[in-house]
Specification:
heterodimer, A: alpha/beta, six-stranded mixed β-sheet, 21 strands, B: 342 residues, mainly alpha, three-stranded antiparallel β-sheet, 3% strand
């Protein structure tokens, strides 16, 4: 029986003084009871906009629908009145958002948040609602939550928050659940259990699931039907197995082919040590325990880390969020205060004065995760890239500088005309290339890559990885590659270091770690990322 | 001049607020006109033709004897005797309003303050001086006072906020406490006490006001610097070895400027109101100088002459409204989430 039928849906955005943006063009698909349909595509392909228009959650009247209809049980939802939509939202259709950090209200306790749809749609009393909340918390696999009903979102971990969100979405036992990238913001080990939870709940309640994802591994295991979107248009749809095994459209092929693969080129010998740390510690001052006591709850973000890195080598640092990877990177670059020994190019960085350190800075550079916040939006690309030259190579005249900027732009695969434009005119992948150009123009020996591909789509990820590998081979760069994505780390690194809670728990050559991990935690990480789905009961035995 | 797309969008957004755009135009025209107040309201003629030669008494003083009179003093061109002397051998053109700030109209038929007439368009005040002329000069001094005060207090405020926001920690803590104490001082009483000791001049008044008005922007700029401080591009600049002052100036200040520019019209408004208040209470500009506040005082003292109070009220309300409307349009222009429709 058809539960949801979307026909010729178009979504346009109109802003004053700007041309109308066509986000979704003529999209049609249908979803039956108990079925899972995956909307797949890269960022900007209109997946989320399609999902949001089902519940009328777009910023109207800036967004509008020139054509289309959304029939839910035969009832038209598109352009329906706010009051009739409100009866459907949260009651018949539940929604899980990507970012559990921002999707929960920080001022409400988890009991209040989960009970809210119950009080609105089911007319329950407070005590009835509380009972139901406790049931739901058991259901979503968060039984500890029962003792923490008065906890606020910031007191929960990312995975726990996502479970609370699922409990909210399920509170009224909806017939359709929309999950917008439900696991993207979570660590790999937690991802697996959330996927498992969603699919078991789906079976239990015979819900239809509209899954939005860019992760084909997850889609393959969860969805029966798949719809591939490119620039707001459906390029391919059908049964998941069929589409993924025999893709017809080039875009689908491209998506499937862009899983990270390959290996770094072997490092050149002889291998001189470039960077060495001994017993490096970073401590963040915490809250005072109490008014009177002297001690405070300090956080040891990086705790006694020692490692060395040779020129031309890539060291992959792997770990979940909060494991101290980024803090370690900042400590090496002396961007945060640290204790311990850091030697770079035969200099003890801890003893250098600020001005001496500034002279060394061009040798070690960093690329950040978020290409949107790592470029100053008010400077042109030329100004951004040339800034390092203006400071460290003052003797250059404007013409030479411009020439060098053009050369480096070509090197990272951008047109030289790009230098007169501003960051907002570029896509995420292009911005990351600009950030790489900014770092490389100073001819560094060490480049720290702090999750350089996490914010990018898979296919662009692959391009950036290829670029980084090429640059390493050409300039004999040493990389410290930080990531939570083991597939990417495997494709990039010679050696790997696994971090947890500020400690190194395992270290060794890449292939050795992947084939014969010793530590339990490393094993669970590898299992979670290479076998996206729920370790099925069979495998556990 | 080519603007960046962001600036273009902001200009478009500003123009989309029609009320603000028109306010800016009207304010611009008024400001331009009052810059030349001496040519509009003056008791000296713009041009004199005398015995075949041309004179411009606005720029140079001529003794009465020059025109064939008896006194060696500066000519009073409004005197009928002098008028007759000149017009016998030539002619002269007066500005549209033939009165200056302190020109007393001695030809009134009724006791001062006299009601509006064809001679004095807005009437005269209690000393027989033309209200329109005084209004124009008062308007000018108010706007200039406001602009200069806003300019300097923004510079100091942005600087203080930037330092606190960038360095944070102890510097921020100490500065904040100092500001809290400093802002607790009662400015009005301080000014009243000071003006009873020394006679306040334009610049002295400005200096005293400046001591207290710079604090308005500190909070905004400080918050903006705090926010920008943690962005990746600041970290990237640090990793590049960019010196601190350059990071503050090039990477952080432009962000803070958005908030600052949004606040400026409101600070300007505040400055003008403060000057008017002081003048109204009699602790402002030296006696005899034209000002909106002084006009309001006269209105209060002569309730039976409503043209005084009404003129003061309407001109002040008009000026402040214009500035608020411009401020609103600027706020719209810098609001990234603003969606406008036609």
């Amino acid at each position: 029986m058809t539960l949801l039928r979307i026909e010729n849906l178009s979504v346009h955005f109109k802003n004053h003084h700007q041309p109308t943006m066509e986000a979704v063009k003529d999209v049609s698909f249908q979803l039956d009871q108990g079925e899972t349909l995956a909307l797949v595509g890269e960022s900007g392909s209109g997946k989320s906009v399609t999902a949001l228009s089902i519940l009328g959650l777009l910023p109207y009247p800036m967004a509008f629908h020139p054509t289309g209809s959304v029939l839910f049980h035969g009832q038209e939802l598109l352009n329906a009145s706010e009051s009739s939509l409100r009866a459907v939202r949260g009651h018949d259709i539940g929604m899980i958002f990507q970012e559990p950090m921002t999707a929960l209200n920080p001022l409400h306790t988890i009991e209040q948040q989960i009970a809210e749809p119950l009080l609105i749609h089911k007319n329950m009393t407070k005590s009835q609602a509380k009972e139901r909340v406790i049931d739901l918390l058991h259901l979503v696999g968060f039984p500890d939550g029962v003792n923490r009903l008065q906890a606020y979102p910031h007191q929960l971990s990312g995975g726990q928050r996502q479970r609370v969100m699922i409990a909210m979405a399920l509170a009224c036992e909806p017939q359709l659940l929309i999950a917008d990238e439900p696991t993207t913001a979570l660590d790999v080990t937690i991802q697996a259990s959330i996927i498992e939870l969603i699919s078991s709940l789906q079976k239990q309640f015979k819900m239809a699931l509209l899954l939005i994802s860019h992760d084909l591994g997850m889609v393959r295991k969860m969805a029966q039907k798949i719809v591939v979107l490119q620039e707001g248009k459906i390029v391919e749809k059908g049964l998941t197995q069929k589409v993924l095994s025999q893709p017809r459209h080039p875009y689908t092929k491209h998506l499937i082919a862009s899983e990270p693969s390959g290996h770094p080129s072997p490092p050149v010998s002889p291998r001189a040590t470039l960077l060495e740390t001994k017993d490096l510690n970073v401590t963040f001052k915490g809250q005072k325990k109490s008014w009177v006591s002297r001690g405070s709850l300090d956080v040891h973000a990086v705790d006694g880390i020692s490692f060395s890195l040779a020129a031309g080598e890539t060291l992959g640092i792997v770990g979940e969020s909060g494991s101290g990877k980024s803090t370690l990177a900042y400590a090496i670059l002396k961007l945060v205060e640290s204790k311990g020994y850091i030697q770079f190019c035969c200099n003890n960085l801890q003893e250098l004065s600020r001005s001496t350190l500034r002279i060394l800075r061009p040798q070690m550079q960093i690329i950040f995760q978020d290409p949107f916040s790592s470029l100053n939006p008010r400077l042109s690309i030329n100004q951004i890239i040339a800034e390092g030259l203006e400071i460290h190579q003052k003797h250059l005249d404007a013409k030479t500088r411009d020439h060098m900027v053009q050369t480096i732009l070509k090197e990272v695969g951008l047109p030289t005309a790009a230098r007169h434009r501003y960051p907002h005119e570029f896509s995420g992948g292009q911005r990351q290339r600009i950030a790489i150009a900014r770092a490389l123009i100073l001819k560094p020996k060490l480049l720290i890559l702090d999750e350089p591909t996490s914010a990018l789509d898979r296919s662009i990820q692959a391009e950036v990885i290829t670029l980084l590998r090429d640059l390493q081979a050409r300039y004999h760069l040493a990389y410290i590659f930080i990531s939570h994505d083991l597939k990417v780390v495997r494709a990039m690194s010679h050696r790997i270091m696994v971090m947890k809670e500020g400690h190194i728990i395992e270290e060794g050559l890449t292939e050795k770690i992947f084939t014969k991990p010793k530590n339990e935690y490393t094993k669970s990480l590898i299992r979670a990322s290479f076998d996206n789905l729920p370790s099925t009961p069979k495998r556990k035995k | 001049m080519k603007f960046s797309p962001l600036t273009q969008r902001r200009i478009a957004q500003f123009k989309a607020n029609r009320r603000g755009y028109w306010s800016l135009r009207i304010f611009g025209i008024l400001f331009f006109i009052i810059l030349f107040a001496e040519f509009i309201a003056n008791d000296k003629p713009l041009l004199v033709s005398f015995e075949g030669k041309w004179y411009t008494p606005i720029f140079r003083n001529y003794p009465e004897t020059h025109w064939g009179g008896k006194f060696q003093t500066v000519t009073n061109y409004r005197d009928t005797y002098v008028k007759n002397l000149i017009e016998k051998k030539g002619w002269m053109i007066f500005p549209p309003i033939p009165y200056s700030i302190n020109t007393v109209n001695f030809n009134l038929n009724v006791p001062a303050p006299s009601p509006p007439s064809s001679d004095n368009w807005l009437g005269t005040d209690d000393q027989g001086r033309d209200v329109l002329a005084r209004l124009i000069y008062g308007f000018r001094i108010s706007i200039f006072f406001g602009l200069i005060l806003t300019f300097f207090s923004s510079i100091i405020g942005v600087l203080a906020g930037a330092i606190q926001g960038y360095f944070g920690g102890r510097i921020d803590l100490i500065f904040q406490r100092i500001i809290e104490i400093w802002s607790g001082l009662p400015i009005l009483y301080l000014l009243i006490i000071l003006s009873s000791i020394i006679e306040p001049s334009f610049w002295l008044l400005l200096g005293i006001m400046l001591l207290f008005s710079w604090m308005m922007l500190v909070a905004v700029v400080r918050a903006e610097f705090f926010r920008t401080r943690s962005l990746d591009y600041i970290r990237a600049a640090e990793a590049l070895g960019v010196p601190t002052w350059r990071i503050m100036l090039r990477h952080m200040l432009p962000n803070a400027m958005v908030a600052t520019i949004t606040y400026l019209p409101f600070i300007l408004n505040g400055s003008i109101t403060t000057l008017t208040t002081l003048d109204f209470l009699g602790f402002g500009l030296p006696p005899g100088s034209a000002s909106l506040g002084e006009l309001l005082t006269q209105g209060k003292n002569h309730v039976q002459s409503p043209w005084l109070g009404l003129t003061g009220f309407f001109s002040l309300a008009f000026l402040l409204s214009l500035l608020i409307f411009i401020g609103e349009a600027i706020r719209d222009a810098f609001d990234p989430r603003k969606v406008t429709f036609r």
